[in-house]
Amino acid sequence: MTQNSAKTFQIGDHVRWNSEAGYVSGIIIRIHTENFDYKGYTHHATPEDPQYEIKSDKSDHIAAHKGKALTKI
User: Fold this and answer.
1) What is the pTM of this model?
2) What number of CA atoms fall less than 13 Å from residue 67's CA on the CB side?
3) What was the pLDDT predicted at 33?
4) How far apart are CA 10 and CA 71, in angstroms?
């Protein structure tokens, strides 16, 4: 696997991200490596720049983010 500037994570990793309401944390439940539709929007993802579905620790909310928005905790 080649090294690049994108952060990579695995299913089960505990991460946090900055949302409109402040920092949120959750567990990665799915990794997308192709474009996908979620909540009415097309999210762009590639094997080199995947998007991660994260289940919030505090609610059942599911968010989708690229690795650059996430920090492993």
Assistant:
1) 0.85
2) 18
3) 97
4) 12
Is there a contact between 64 and 38 (Cβ–Cβ < 8 Å)?
yes
Contact 9, 28 (CB under 8 A): yes
How many other C-beta atoms are found inside a 10 Å radius of the C-beta of residue 52? 26
Structure tokens at 62: 């599911």
Q: Is the pLDDT of residue 3 over 50?
A: no
Q: Tell me how far apart the alpha carbons of residues 49 and 52 are, in angstroms, rounded to a whole number.
A: 10
Start-to-end CA distance of the chain, whole Å, equals 23
- Provide φ and ψ at 37, rounded to 5°: -95, 135
Q: Name the percent of the chain lying above pLDDT 70.
A: 92
Question: Do residues 11 and 28 lie in contact, with contact meaning Cβ atoms separated by under 8 Å?
Answer: yes
Give yes or no for a contact between 43 and 64, defined as CB atoms under 8 angstroms apart. yes
